[in-house]
Amino acid sequence: MFFCEVSRIIVTSDETTGSGPAPLLDLRCIVKVYQTPAGDLFALKDIDLQVYPGEFVAVVGKSGAGKSTLINVITGIDRPTSGEIIIGGTPIHSLKEDQLARWRGKNLGVVFQFFQLLPNLNLIENITIAMDVCNTYPVREHEKRALALLDQVGIAEHGYKVPAKISGGQQQRVAIARALANDPPVIVADEPTGNLDERTAGEIFDLFENLVEQGRTLLVVTHDREIAARATRQVEIADGKLQGIGVRG
Amino acid sequence: MKLRTRWRKIIKDIWGNKTRSLLVILSIAVGVAAIGMINNTMTMLRRDLFGAHSRGNPASVSLYISPFDTDLAGAVEAMREVETVQAHRTLSARLIRADGAPAENITLDIVPGFDKVAINRFSIERGAEIPGIRKILLERCSADGLGIDIGDTIIIETEGKQRYSLTVSGIVHDLYLIPYNILGDATGYVSMDTLRWMGEQAYYSRLDVIVAENEGDREHALAVAAQARDRVIETSGYQVYRIAIPGINSDPGEHWGQSQINGFVLVLQVMSVLAIFLSGGLVVNSISAILSQQIRQIGILRSIGAVRSQLVGMYVANVLVLSVAGLAMGLPLGMLGAWWLTNFAAGYLNFDVTAITPDPTVTILQVAVGLVMPIVVAFFPIVSGTRISVYDAIYQQGLAGDRQEGGIDGLLAKIRNLHPPVMLSLRNTFRKKARLAFTLITLTLAGAMFMSVFSTRASLTGQINQIARYVAFDASLSVTPGLTRASVERTAMRIPGVTVAEGWVSSGGILMRADGSEGDEIQVYGIPYNSVTIDPLLIDGRWLQADDTNGVVINDDFLEHAPETAVGSSITVKIADQNRTYEIVGIVSKHLSGSRVYMTYDTFSKATGRSNQADMVRVRLDADKIGSSAEQKRLAAEIEDRFQDAGMSQSSSQTQDEIFGSFTGPFDIILMVLVIMAGLLAVVGGLSLAGTMGMNVMERTREIGVLRAVGANNQAVRQVVVIEGVVVGLISWLLAVAVSGPAGVALAGAVVYAVFKAPVNFQYSFEGLAIWLVVIVLIGVFSSLAPARSAARLTVREVLDYE
After folding, report:
1. What is the 3-state secondary structure (H, E, C) of B700-767?
2. Which terminus, N or C, of chain B has the lesser number of Cβ atoms within 10 Å?
3. Are the CB atoms for B509 and B523 separated by under 8 Å?
């Protein structure tokens, strides 16, 4: 097992060292081990990470470094082998599957690399279903709110189209709008521009910056250092360990 | 009100998967419709056939008596054990067709008062209520079948070859007769005055009786009839020839075909339960396919906050929508089927359908099967399908689990030198064992049922052929009593082409019980020991020999009434008022025409005192084989003419074809319905396989992409899928072969018992086995084609999308 305290010292940012605000996202000694026929594979090794309200953190690293695993344990999509994840004061590592799903739906917006929209639903419905399953807004307000969110990401005019009828960049905008559906304080995105061209990727990051300006906290995984440079803080991961911190260019 | 998005998703999912949704809807509809058709038909049969039959005061028992008058009827009616009686006179005659068509047999029925019939009340459908002199009322089936209507004149030829013109003055509906379209004999009603005008003597010959108590009790009805015979009829100087419960193995008061109809309906009910089982299976299969297809969507929904109970609710709602649609389709379809089947039965069995109305109990049952069954059977796949983690749902879809375990997997791994696509197909077949097992169960059931239907047909044919051994003649004719056997045989042999002519004698007898009381009626035959017109199938002992003076052969039917009887044991038979004891030397197979005792001429002569006489003549054109239908018909006409011209017979001849023609008809209908049901099961089985193959392809998208990436062309990809489908089909065929034996015995047994009230002589149909092999291979190919096409359409790019 790794030594958590050493790792914590390396990755802690300047802002965490003082007596500033409490972290919104607090990862403590996170270890993720995959059991394979070839033996145990340590995907995450004693990760400590704190993200504060209003931060825009980019996690960068090479392919296989553990970026997606890190995002998956933060969102509760995957479980850590050991360690604690506290988001907004909730120890999500101790939640049961349904509790986790309900918590995630209300408190965390997830944006996937491949958008993961429901193909049979139109764009508005792809957003309203998030409100529906979480019962966060009255049903009569769902469509109005979905249109407002689509407007916010700049594709309101496509609201009644199905995902297959719009471009990849537009689909990712819908995924971002869906992540905002229940007004969560934290947005987590896994390679959100990995499937997009450079110009569209830039537009998506413009959206992210707008969200941060509105007071949301963002954690984005990307392999593109140029794009990551637009974040307020960069965290590098290599071989399952956080290597250091960075700040916006 | 705004519909929640999750419900809109359900509707869109259903609409987006039209084929699969339609499959589930149809499978539910088939089950619901089958229940509705069969059970509503049964309800309407109970109301309009059995109910109407019961309202017309059906006879408990009939006594066939030497000529009597209404005084005797009154005396029997006065018995405390008897509720009411009805005297009848029946006269066999020929109906001569004016258009030159062959003459038809007709039975003339005469009752004391047409306006006060007490038992087996028929109704006047049209025309006169009472037949006047030289008038006749015709039963409506006979009138329809013969194309005769009120006002037409018909010619009746009596046994003395005298012809009389009668005018049809009314049409009667008689529910108590086996109709013309089944029996082939017409029925008319005339007055006693008309009978006198036709030169016949005025008397009655049959007395129908309704017993005062225990009306449905067979033993009681027979006991009351025996009491009437012993206490009233025979003490008054009349002779009772026969006592019989009306109908075909019916109980007193039952419709003549009630047990056969109930048996047939039971078989259909069993098949409808099977259809429900299979449609339930198809629901499970389809829901599993939908869940399999939507694994990633389940992951997405969970990633945005959906809890498991919501997902379960969504998919249960999905099934519910399909169930409601299936129910909505199945209810009217079932009613339509019931309407068709009831009307068909009404036409066939000669009853009126008063109204086509659904039975509320049946509707409740249909709703339960249509709504509850799919949800119950789909609940487990839904619960287990929604248990998947978000991670697995989003990141692991498209690559089916591929853990090679021992057993079959190990065995398959050892197979070498096969073409790679074939090898891949073989190994793919056994990857999802639970799903494979489920598909195999469905296909095996369908196959076993299909083969069972063929075995049932083979058994029925075998049974009929077995019976044919006992009427191994081209034609037979009853001759005038008292004629010598030699003269009868000589006259028959004079007919050109006849090579075999045998005079047989017969007599009714009563099997005496050990305590000296009278038992069941039996038929005793005196025949040549080396008869050619009977080909006995011995099941025990031996056939008659020339020196058998006390030895007799009985048929298997006999054992039903005296099960303790065996070869070597003795029986006491009352013949011509004398009790005689015989030794059983052999038992022959079933005749399905009642208990028979065969003995040599000499033995019969000694028992009856009728030396060297004949009651009938049985002839053949060829000693080695039975003639064609046309030859039989020609010979029957010739023998009839020859004997009637010689004054040696006033009866109608009968061919072997005619005997079987009358009872193979109902079999054909039963078999047709069974084949249709088996076909439906095959369709459901095929749909199930198609669903499974679709799921397999969906789950292996990534592998198929890999195959394409390494150079597999469309044909190779299609081949992998189609071979897998065929392999599944062939495995199910092997299993069906194993199951088809017992299943065939059960089905054939049920059908034969329904029709004959006799156990089946089962014959396995290898023809059915071969046909199902072809059908299952075709099902395997065709049900895999669509999934194979989908697989071949997948591009490497699409596969990458799964990463």
Report:
1. CHHHHHHHHHCCCCHHHHHHHHHHHHHHHHHHHHHHHHHHHHHHHHHHHHHHHHHHHCCCCCCCCCHH
2. N
3. yes
Domain count, chain A: 1
d(CA B142, CA B144): 5
Q: Determine how many CB atoms are found less than 10 A away from the CB of residue A174.
A: 26
- Supply the angle between the helices A123-134 and A139-152 in degrees, to the nearest 10: 130
In a domain, A227, yes or no: yes
CB contact under 8 A, B304 and A110: yes
B6 contact residues in A (CB cutoff 8 A) = 129, 132-133
CATH of the domain at A131: 3.40.50.300
Over residues B607-644, the pLDDT tens digits come to 888 888 899 999 999 988 888 888 898 898 899 888 88
Measured between its terminal Cα atoms, the distance across chain B in Å is 40
Q: Does residue A218 form part of some domain? A: yes
The range of the structural domain enclosing residue A220 comes to 53-79+92-247
Evaluate whether residue A8 is within a structural domain: no
C-beta separation of B188 from B139 below 8 A? yes
Sign of CA dihedral B251, B255, B260, B263: negative
Closest approach of A236 to chain B, Cα-based (Å): 23
Q: What is the DSSP string of B464-477?
A: HHHHHGGG--SEEE
Q: Is residue A141 in some structural domain?
A: yes
The reply to whether A129 touches chain B by the CB within 8 Å rule is yes
Percentage of the residues of chain B whose pLDDT score is greater than 70 = 91
pLDDT tens profile A188-234: 998 888 777 888 888 888 888 888 888 899 999 988 888 788 889 99
The token duo for B219 is 């033993």
Residue partners of B469: CB distance under 8 A and separation at least 6: B534, B535, B536, B537, B589
